[in-house]
Amino acid sequence: MEEIAAKGITDEKVLKAIDKIPRHFFMDDIFVKFAYADQAFPIGAGQTISQPYTVAFQTQQLQIQKGDKVLEIGTGSGYQTAVLLECGARVYTIERQKLLYDKVKTMLGQLGYQPNLFYGDGYKGLPAFAPFDKILVTCGAPFIPELLVDQLKPGGRMMIPVGAGEVQEMTLIIKEIDGSISKTQLGQFKFVPMLGEKEWKQGY
Ligand code: SAH
Asked: In testing the pocket of ligand 1, which one of 14, 83, 195, 200 has its CB within 8 Å of the most ligand atoms?
């Protein structure tokens, strides 16, 4: 928590969440001793648990208010989900890797967290539960999925790393009350790719 505060995170809710959540629960046994290092680690199925600084940065930019309805794409380890819940959000999260979905379902329950978990394709979002106050994409998207922007409330914020390569540009999307969209680039980050149906079937 002190390390990411030193790196520029100031939102008290976010810092408290990072301080409170036992990250070692979210990691594979072999990496447990590194659980409190500010680094990403493999979580199986070729995926990673994001670096705490990245989790904190994305969450801070969303300006989470208590009771916000948040859509997360890429549940992964569930760590980011827990941070959102600790900040007072109501979380809807989608994971398309069955192994991780099953794992996270059991684990978050054991820790007492109760997000709405979905196994499915994040590109589609959750139209049945839209609109969302905030949307958080935690995998590298080759483009900004229009369906997700559609599911953002006027006045809402969305954070999405955009780029087809290994490095993406963190992008903040704000939907104004009149429905107009503004985009701000906030620096480069590295995420595992957001996969589409075709790549998934090819076993990318
Ligand atoms: N938020 C996670 C980060 C996990 S890495 C954490 O805190 O641990 C990104 C995750 O996005 C991976 O688990 C990957 O399987 C998932 N993902 C990739 N493409 C997706 C898609 N189209 N829909 C939903 N999840 C996707």
From this structure: 195
Catalytic positions, please? 50
Tell me the best of 151, 194, 199 to mutate to test the pocket of ligand 1, counting ligand atoms within 8 Å of each CB and taking the most.
Answer: 194
Give the pLDDT confidence of 121-146 residue by residue, as tens digits: 999 999 999 999 999 999 999 999 99
Spacing, Cα 138 to ligand 1 middle (Å): 6
Residue range 59-90, pLDDT digits in tens: 999 999 999 999 999 999 999 999 999 999 99
| Domains of the chain, each with CATH number or no CATH | 2-199 (3.40.50.150)
- Helix (H) or strand (E) run with residue 187 in it: strand 181-189
Helix (H) or strand (E) holding 110: helix 98-110
What does 31-46 look like in DSSP terms, one character per residue? GGGGTTSSS-EEEETT
194 lines ligand 1 (CB under 6 A): yes
66 CA to centre of ligand 1 in angstroms: 24
The residues near 176 (Cβ < 8 Å, ≥ 6 apart) are: 154, 155, 182
The pair of structure tokens assigned to 68 is 């916000």
CA separation for the pair 54, 189 (Å, rounded): 8
